[in-house]
Structures are given as structure tokens and as C-alpha cells.
Prior knowledge:
The chain is mostly beta strands. It is 10% helix and 45% strand. It has one helix and 27 strands.
Amino acid sequence: MKNDKFVLYAIIILLIIFLPLTVVSFYIKIGENPLDANPGHDFYYDNNLWFYNKNDDLISKYACTTEKCNLAETIIDDDKYGINYYQGGNLSNVEIIDNKYTFITDGALNYLFSLGSSSTVSNYKNIKDYHIRIENNTYIVQNKDDVWGAFTIGSNLGAVLPFEYDFIGLKNNVVNNELQAKKFIVLKDSKWFIVDNKNSALTSFFENPIIDYTDNYVISKQDDKIRIYNYKMEEYLTTYNFNECATFINYIAVKDTNNIYVFNNVNNILKTINVSESGKLSLENNNNVLEIKIADKVLDTIALN
């Protein structure tokens, strides 16, 4: 009996020593905690989306209701109207914003999700961010009634444009890797105009799409013809037949069949460039030198002040 008790005690002691070591060695071997509800810390696991911080601590979890469940994808609908929009973005899904909010697609809708409360705030039909960070974490969103608005995401949600527009767009204007959002191209009741980020109209109402602008001029397009106006809809350079345009700050480049014209004042054309090349017209700043390009080929330059 004494020997049996000794053996039993020895087995218990050995289990106490080696069982934890076995669990620890298993954890080290596979790099996962078998006692964790999501051992591999996968983003999608067990029909949930799991959100972890930089220290790999779980901060929130979203319970999916459909099989189509992920971070939301965004759209760009500017091609439909010919807007000169930013096309170099590489974000395929929305980001997690300061570990506080993100957008989730679950089924047919997109949801603004609060990581702090692990709950949805609102839902939207579409989201637009041009696949790049927009100034002040601004997002352009379409609600279930097919009207567009915009808001910022920070410590709190901040309204920018109310849900009353048939289209909202931003021109191609990137500064320090952020798309600028101080002015918006909008469409409402079949009229195009520009508003600021306080929803104040800055221009007259145009019948045709506004595809670009500067601080002084609005560029519209009608039947593939570029038309240039001031903010009060007074038209300039009407004897020309421009078919393409590009802007940088207050510089405008326009192209007809044979020439490119560059100006920052319609009464003062800075450059006239004869061109036979085809491709996209662009203006780009390179070390304080404005490059006039066709299909990424530099045709001429202007020193910027």
C-alpha cells in the first residue's frame, strides 16, 4: 500500500510539473494560445471580425450576420462625369481609424463600426475615399436613399456635407499624401457647383459637369469640349476648341488638336506648346518646377514662385 501511494504521489507531482510545460511548449511551437477564443488572432474567425491593437490585445469584435463580411471596399464613380480625380490610390479597403472606427461590409450594406463600443453607428450603401487618406479623415458616403453626404472621423464624428447631393467629388489635389477636402464638386437637382467644407456654395450653378477648378476658374465639359468660366459663370477663351485639361494650384493646362496652352490668368498665357503626342495631359510639381506632361513625358517646364 505504501508503494502504491508513493507511485500515485509521484505521478501527481510529475503531472503538476510536466503538464504546464507541455502546454507552454505547444504554445511556443505553434505561436498560438490554445486557450484563446481566436488562437491565431485571425481577422475573420468563427463568424466574427476580430480587432487587435499593436500589442496584439483584443480591442473589439464584430459578429457577422452574413458570409460577405469584411472591411468595406470603396467605390469611385467620378469617371461617369469625367472628373479629374486622383487615380494613384492603393488602399483597397478602408482603414481602421485611430483604433476607434472603421467601415464594415456585412451583406448588402456597409456599417460604420465603433471599436470602443463594439457596435454599429449607422449604415451606408456606398463609401468613397479615392483609395487614399483624405484630409481630416473625411469620408464621402451614400445612404440607402441614394443621396450623398460627407463627414470626418476623429474623437467624434463631424458633419461636413449633409445628405442632399446626387454626387460629391474631389479634384486631384494631394498634399503630403493626403487628398485635400476644403472644396467639393457637387451635383444637386441637376445643377453642378462647388461648395466648401462648411457646405457654403462658392460658385454659380452649372448645367454641365464641373470636372476641375482653381481658386479663380471653373472648368466644365459639354459634348467633349472643355469650357472655362469664372465662379460667376462668365466664360473665357470661347474661340478655342479644347478637349482636355489639367490643373495644379492656380495653373491650368488645356489642349486642342495641335497645342497645349498653360496659364494662371486667362489674359496671360504663359506657355504655348505644339504637341503631336497623345495621352493623358498632366501638370506636376517637381522640386518647385511645374512639369507639363503628356503620357508622363515632360514637354516643357515652368519655374514655380
